[in-house]
Design a protein that fits this description.
By secondary structure, the chain is an alpha/beta fold. The protein has 9 helices and 14 strands. Pfam families: Lactamase_B_2.
Length: 266
């Protein structure tokens, strides 16, 4: 049987949405997990679906303290003996969710300051969300390939555009359709306001506007992430993105809550 080899630089959105998020990124010989809102068992199951080996992980990097991003991070770090990279404010807000932190190797991360995990250079940057210190990430492999990650943000200012420009691949929030959100009888008005606020989530149209504002000359893959299961549909998210990317060589994948994406190269 012919062995299936991962690309040198690749990523896989293992889960995306309000019930749990996890993103596998590999550059050269280094594999890192960005966020883990899944149980340890579920994370391993999903990685196995894509022939990814959790024992090769070098670290977990957390974007913010909401349970759907940090809930399983402590379990994974302890299980595989790998460090957790987290800002001090996010750590403070995650203590109970992380579990036995004394048994973990916790590394301080600071937005605006690059750090390296093996062959990956990671540059966290501040984004606008209703958490203590939410981070987006610009990840550069030793080959020079760049992946941008921004999945929980209410607005996309100059800093976000700067860090997402010139990437070879992007994981970008396309959370909701405003009309579906406002018509949703299950969402009380304060929650609708929170989603649409400057510290909430990007709509499909806002994600498309952000795409239109950045340098996409090297962009080969776009993953639309954190879609609301109640206030969005893949077709609506894709239509907004295609409105900007139509005619380009960029492929678009919609990340799902219950199914990993294919393993994509960058």
């Amino acid at each position: 049987m012919t062995e299936i080899l991962e690309p040198e630089n690749c990523f896989c959105q293992l889960a995306s949405g309000s019930k749990g998020n996890a993103l596998y990124v590999k550059g050269g010989e280094t594999a890192v997990l960005f966020d883990c809102g899944l149980s340890g068992r579920e994370l391993e199951r999903r990685m196995a679906e894509r022939d990814l080996d959790p024992t090769t992980l070098s670290a977990v990097v957390v974007s913010h303290e909401h349970t759907d991003h940090v809930g399983g991070a402590g379990v994974i770090c302890r299980r595989f003996g790998i460090p957790l990279y987290i800002t001090e404010a996010t750590r403070t807000g995650s203590t109970k969710k992380l579990g036995k932190t004394k048994a973990m190797d916790i590394q301080a991360m600071e937005c605006g300051k690059r750090f390296s995990v093996g062959s990956l250079e990671i540059h966290p940057f501040s984004i606008s969300h209703d958490a203590a210190d939410t981070s987006g990430f610009r990840v550069t492999a030793s080959s020079g390939a760049v992946l941008g990650i921004a999945t929980d943000l209410g607005i996309a200012g100059h800093l976000v555009k700067e860090h997402l420009s010139g990437c070879h691949a992007l994981v970008l929030e396309s959370n909701h359709d405003p009309e579906l959100l406002y018509a949703n009888p299950n969402y009380p008005w304060p929650l609708k306001q929170r989603v649409r606020s400057r510290v909430g989530h990007l709509s499909n149209e806002e994600a498309a506007t952000l795409l239109d504002a950045i340098d996409r000359s090297r962009l080969s893959h776009l993953v639309l992430a954190h879609l609301s299961e109640e206030n969005n549909t893949p077709d609506l998210a894709l239509a907004a993105a295609y409105g900007v990317l139509n005619g380009s060589n960029t492929s678009i994948t919609v990340a799902k809550q219950n199914l990993p994406t294919p393993v994509l190269s960058f």
